[in-house]
Amino acid sequence: MKLAFHGDAVKVFEGKDDKLAAYHQGQVDLLVPLVKAYASDQAFRICENAIQTYGGAGFTRDYPVEQYCRDSKIFSIYEGTNHIQAMDLVGRKLGQAGGANLQAFLGDVGKFVATHSAHPVLGDAVKRLGKAQESVGGAAMRMLMWFQSGNLGMVPLSANRVLEMMSELSVAWLLLDAAVIAEEKKAKTDAGHPDFAFYTGKTSAALYYARNVLPGVEWKAKLLEEEDKSPLEIPNEAFATV
């Protein structure tokens, strides 16, 4: 097997594996903006919430979260600000390879939903994942329609929302995938074993995310459908000057 370095990615070339390598490279290309933007935004929000739990003392140097909060803010700025990452996603990545990378991603999520929607513990959460997957697919089509119809003002206005939708779908999928494995392992583990609690935590995290964060994907899709242009229609005179 030969490895060829191209930019920040590693491509694998070996006869019959070329198709598989193209698939994995396509997923890397598609998902990099999600990893950079969503993860760095969440890092800041976690630190922000940590400050709140400390109360008024949280922003003092007596506690490390003050430093963590300031440090984590830079994550959303360097290597392309997160809005630029969102614009890269909707402007380039969604249509890359003729949309094949996006279709492969949505197809992978769809296969997971079809396989596990009847799961005795996670079934309802997996069904919610399926609804979110459909919402993301619809949002991508709406973006394409805006490009094709010349409704370009809606693209940057909605780019961050689309990135959040795809990110939340991805995180929910990965958490539920881990929870499926955890449930299989837990069934073979003694309740008193330390691993039992670990597996239980995996399931709990997946269920919480699916019930409390994932439904927001459908809601955001409905907001996109409304095509609210009010921010674009504010006249210059409406902005205050000093």
Structure commentary:
With 242 residues, the chain is mostly helical. It contains eight helices and two strands; from the N terminus they run ββαααααααα. A two-stranded antiparallel ribbon has the order 1-2. A hairpin with a 2-residue loop joins β1 and β2. α1 packs antiparallel against α3, α5 runs antiparallel to α6 (154-186) and α6 packs antiparallel against α8. It is globular. The model is unreliable at 1-13 (pLDDT under 50).
Question: Secondary-structure blueprint of this entry?
Answer:
Blueprint (H helix, E strand, L loop, with lengths): L1 E5 L2 E5 L4 H37 L10 H9 L8 H12 L6 H17 L6 H27 L4 H33 L7 H19 L2 H12 L16
Antiparallel strand pairs: 1-2
Helix pairs in contact: 1-2, 1-3, 1-4, 1-6, 3-6, 4-5, 5-6, 5-7, 5-8, 6-7, 6-8
Radius of gyration: 21 Å
Name the assembly state: single chain
- Class inferred from helices and paired strands: mainly alpha
Overall pLDDT level: 91
Order of helices and strands: EEHHHHHHHH
Number of helices: 8
Specify the biggest β-sheet: 2 strands, antiparallel
How far is it from the N-terminal to the C-terminal residue, by CA? Answer: 64 Å
Residues in helix, %:
55-70%
| Beta strand % | under 5%
**Strand segment tally:** 2
Shape: globular
